[in-house]
Amino acid sequence: MLLVALAGGIGAARFLSGLVRVTEPTQLTVVGNTGDDLVLNGLHISPDLDTVAYTLGGGVHAGQGWGRAEETFAVASELRERYGRSDWFALGDRDIATHLVRSSMLAEGHSLSSATAEIARRWHLGFALVPMTDEAAPTRIRTADGRTLHFQEWWVGERAEPAVEQVDLSAARAASPAPGVIDALAAADAVILCPSNPVVSIGPILEVEGIRAVLSGVPVVGVSPIVGGQVVRGMADRLLPGVGVEVSAAGVARLYSGFLDGWVIDSQDAGHAEAIVAEGVRVAVTDTIMRTPEVTEALARTVLDLVAKLRGDGR
């Protein structure tokens, strides 16, 4: 079965680690968010793509869920102490190696897709990892105090403290999909929305030209990133109200209205099932808190079971 997963960072990477154990990885394409990408000290950094590569490649810092295991920070220390360069987005030495490879390939004229494919190959992922676009498509945050910040400046640099007035996805909206993305979506037996931030992880992917439109022709199943009215991690609760969406499993399902066919919610949110079904979306209820590999694998199986039921219904 051909599957395409739309993925952000930590939540998506953890879910994918279960999905590849219950399906054939060679039949999977992961389209990663690049709205978080930034250039720092001349290096092109792709946080969400790298989190997927490190997690599925076995090199992620397990406690953080991002960055490299057994990391050191000699370069970041030298930049800060000797050269006075800002370390608001400090990079580890092992992580820098990835960014050097990517940046060198881009400087040589290769696309972000090509660089991502090379990194995925080196991490032996076994599935296709592709960026949503090869073009710059930064997500920007307009704050209540009148500033416009790159998402990473708001999230990391200012620790998500400034109140959000608007999430600006206009750069993603103006971008073309990376080669093969539309074809993969159109050929898929199902598309999976990973449990990622719906506003700044899945949202930018959906805004890229042509992606939202093609989803109406294929079964789409998502996993709610909201459990018991709260985010599992991250800052979706700070951003959903800014786009007029209730912070709930039902609220996020409505955000995907128009193409969402199936929605997997946590047992704590079983009371929302009826309202979601009333929107024409089929619901599965299970444990979605990925505390262990076993729970994560069971969640992936629930998603695939829901896909099978939707395909049996002709959706």
Your description of this structure?
It is a single chain. It is built from 14 helices and 14 strands. The mean pLDDT is about 95. The strands form 4 sheets. The chain has a 7-stranded parallel sheet with strand order 5-2-1-9-10-13-14, with helices on both faces. A 3-stranded antiparallel sheet has the order 7-6-8. It is globular, with a radius of gyration of 19 Å. Helix content is about 40%, strand content about 15%. The chain has about 325 residues and is α/β, with parallel strands linked by helices. Strand 3 and strand 4 form a beta hairpin.
Report a brief summary of the structure:
The protein has 14 helices and 14 strands. It is of the alpha/beta class and 315 residues long.
